[in-house]
Amino acid sequence: MSKPWILGLTGGIGSGKSAVAQCFIDLGVHAVDADHAARWVVEPGRPALTQIAEHFGDDVLLADGNLNRAELRKRIFQNESERRWLEALLHPLIGREISDNLARAESPYAILVSPLLVESGQHRLAQRILVVDAPEALQVQRTILRDSTSAEQVEAILKVQASREERLRHAHDILVNDRDLDWLHSEVSRLHRFYLTLRGGQT
């Protein structure tokens, strides 16, 4: 059997990446979520968590020894150099975790779901890129509802993520996710049928 090719799936916060990924998973496509890999590399007992605690102090740990994500997020969004330090530590570890997981795929193509596909350089792991896009006002509205967060925090996250233009520049395919779930399912099915005709992700 030929090795599955990799589809990179990305989009800004609140664009609906997770819903799109789930549609592909329901169709039998192997998917690896970079966010899950990112969580796994900082679990208690893993070297990365120890280094983070040494660098930022014990405030970034919860009482049970897990990472206090809210506290860490606050620190790095206020400080560019701290964010870069954290990325330099975690990106190579996350990259290895993702590659190992993608290598286990048995579907004709596999999906790497990553909000920072472009920024982190993870797009280099993929042969094709699908960008889930949505109007910014809708992204903010969805994220506030989902995370019970403030519009200011969502705006701060949007600023850190690649600009829409930058993401779209890397896209082979664009899915504008501004309608209902039934429509989304039919769009993903259409893309899936197309992807099954590709060899190595290219037409």
Automatic annotation (TrEMBL):
Keywords: ATP-binding, Coenzyme A biosynthesis, Cytoplasm, Kinase, Nucleotide-binding, Transferase. It is an enzyme of class 2 (transferase). The keyword Cytoplasm applies. One of its GO terms (molecular function) is dephospho-CoA kinase activity. Pfam families: CoaE (PF01121). It catalyses: 3'-dephospho-CoA + ATP = ADP + CoA + H(+). SUPFAM superfamilies: P-loop containing nucleoside triphosphate hydrolases. The keyword Nucleotide-binding applies. Pathway: Cofactor biosynthesis; coenzyme A biosynthesis; CoA from (R)-pantothenate: step 5/5. CDD domains: DPCK (cd02022). InterPro entries: Depp_CoAkinase, P-loop_NTPase. Its EC number is 2.7.1.24. It is found in: Cytoplasm. ATP binds at G14, S15, G16, K17, S18, A19. NCBIfam families: dephospho-CoA kinase. Belongs to the CoaE family. Catalyzes the phosphorylation of the 3'-hydroxyl group of dephosphocoenzyme A to form coenzyme A. This is Dephospho-CoA kinase. It comes from Zestomonas insulae.
